[in-house]
Design brief:
With 115 residues, the protein is mostly helical. The radius of gyration is 18 Å and the shape is extended.
Length: 115
Protein backbone atom coordinates (compact mmCIF):
# COMPACT_ATOMS: atom_id res chain seq x y z
CA UNK A 1 0.00 0.00 0.00
CA UNK A 2 2.80 2.38 0.85
CA UNK A 3 4.60 1.75 -2.43
CA UNK A 4 1.43 2.47 -4.41
CA UNK A 5 1.05 5.73 -2.50
CA UNK A 6 4.68 6.63 -3.21
CA UNK A 7 4.19 5.86 -6.92
CA UNK A 8 1.13 8.10 -7.01
CA UNK A 9 2.96 10.84 -5.11
CA UNK A 10 5.93 10.72 -7.49
CA UNK A 11 3.61 10.97 -10.51
CA UNK A 12 1.88 13.99 -8.99
CA UNK A 13 5.29 15.52 -8.21
CA UNK A 14 6.32 14.95 -11.83
CA UNK A 15 3.10 16.52 -13.15
CA UNK A 16 3.44 19.56 -10.90
CA UNK A 17 7.13 20.25 -11.49
CA UNK A 18 7.98 18.92 -14.96
CA UNK A 19 7.89 22.32 -16.63
CA UNK A 20 10.06 24.08 -14.03
CA UNK A 21 13.56 22.86 -14.86
CA UNK A 22 15.49 19.94 -16.23
CA UNK A 23 17.01 19.15 -12.83
CA UNK A 24 13.61 18.84 -11.16
CA UNK A 25 12.39 16.74 -14.09
CA UNK A 26 15.31 14.34 -13.63
CA UNK A 27 14.67 14.14 -9.87
CA UNK A 28 10.97 13.44 -10.32
CA UNK A 29 11.54 10.74 -12.95
CA UNK A 30 14.25 9.17 -10.76
CA UNK A 31 11.91 9.08 -7.77
CA UNK A 32 9.24 7.41 -9.87
CA UNK A 33 11.74 4.82 -11.07
CA UNK A 34 12.89 4.04 -7.54
CA UNK A 35 9.35 3.67 -6.21
CA UNK A 36 8.25 1.59 -9.20
CA UNK A 37 11.33 -0.58 -8.75
CA UNK A 38 10.28 -1.18 -5.15
CA UNK A 39 6.65 -1.95 -5.96
CA UNK A 40 6.98 -4.45 -8.84
CA UNK A 41 8.81 -7.19 -6.87
CA UNK A 42 6.50 -6.54 -3.95
CA UNK A 43 3.44 -7.26 -6.08
CA UNK A 44 4.91 -10.57 -7.26
CA UNK A 45 5.81 -11.53 -3.68
CA UNK A 46 2.30 -10.74 -2.44
CA UNK A 47 0.81 -12.82 -5.24
CA UNK A 48 3.08 -15.77 -4.39
CA UNK A 49 2.11 -15.55 -0.72
CA UNK A 50 -1.62 -15.45 -1.50
CA UNK A 51 -1.49 -18.49 -3.79
CA UNK A 52 1.36 -20.67 -2.47
CA UNK A 53 0.01 -23.88 -4.08
CA UNK A 54 -0.10 -22.23 -7.52
CA UNK A 55 2.90 -19.95 -7.16
CA UNK A 56 4.48 -20.74 -10.54
CA UNK A 57 1.22 -20.52 -12.49
CA UNK A 58 0.03 -17.32 -10.81
CA UNK A 59 3.40 -15.60 -11.23
CA UNK A 60 3.61 -16.69 -14.86
CA UNK A 61 0.11 -15.43 -15.67
CA UNK A 62 0.78 -12.16 -13.82
CA UNK A 63 4.03 -11.56 -15.69
CA UNK A 64 2.46 -12.55 -19.01
CA UNK A 65 -0.26 -9.94 -18.74
CA UNK A 66 2.08 -7.31 -17.32
CA UNK A 67 4.57 -7.64 -20.18
CA UNK A 68 1.93 -8.29 -22.83
CA UNK A 69 0.33 -4.91 -22.21
CA UNK A 70 3.75 -3.26 -22.04
CA UNK A 71 4.28 -4.60 -25.56
CA UNK A 72 0.85 -3.68 -26.91
CA UNK A 73 0.73 -0.24 -25.26
CA UNK A 74 3.07 1.61 -27.65
CA UNK A 75 1.34 0.13 -30.71
CA UNK A 76 -2.10 1.17 -29.50
CA UNK A 77 -0.71 4.54 -28.39
CA UNK A 78 0.62 5.14 -31.90
CA UNK A 79 -2.80 4.42 -33.37
CA UNK A 80 -4.42 6.80 -30.88
CA UNK A 81 -1.86 9.48 -31.74
CA UNK A 82 -2.56 9.06 -35.43
CA UNK A 83 -6.32 9.51 -35.00
CA UNK A 84 -6.22 12.25 -32.38
CA UNK A 85 -6.38 12.54 -28.64
CA UNK A 86 -10.16 12.21 -28.47
CA UNK A 87 -10.05 8.53 -29.41
CA UNK A 88 -7.61 7.91 -26.57
CA UNK A 89 -9.94 9.67 -24.14
CA UNK A 90 -12.96 7.64 -25.24
CA UNK A 91 -11.00 4.39 -25.03
CA UNK A 92 -10.00 5.23 -21.46
CA UNK A 93 -13.63 6.02 -20.61
CA UNK A 94 -14.74 2.64 -21.98
CA UNK A 95 -11.99 0.78 -20.11
CA UNK A 96 -12.82 2.63 -16.88
CA UNK A 97 -16.54 1.87 -17.28
CA UNK A 98 -15.75 -1.82 -17.81
CA UNK A 99 -13.56 -1.80 -14.69
CA UNK A 100 -16.36 -0.23 -12.65
CA UNK A 101 -18.83 -2.79 -13.96
CA UNK A 102 -16.43 -5.60 -13.05
CA UNK A 103 -15.97 -4.20 -9.53
CA UNK A 104 -19.73 -3.85 -9.09
CA UNK A 105 -20.37 -7.41 -10.21
CA UNK A 106 -17.58 -8.86 -8.08
CA UNK A 107 -18.33 -7.06 -4.83
CA UNK A 108 -21.89 -5.78 -4.81
CA UNK A 109 -23.86 -8.09 -7.07
CA UNK A 110 -22.74 -11.27 -5.28
CA UNK A 111 -23.61 -9.83 -1.87
CA UNK A 112 -27.16 -9.14 -2.98
CA UNK A 113 -27.52 -12.71 -4.29
CA UNK A 114 -26.24 -14.15 -1.02
CA UNK A 115 -28.58 -12.06 1.17
Amino acid sequence: MATAFLNMLSILFFAATAALSLRILIVSISLFGVFLGLSLPLQTTLLANVLPQHRATSTGVYNFFRYFWMTIGPVVGTLFYRYGFQLEFYACVIIFACALLFIYRQFFFQRRCVE
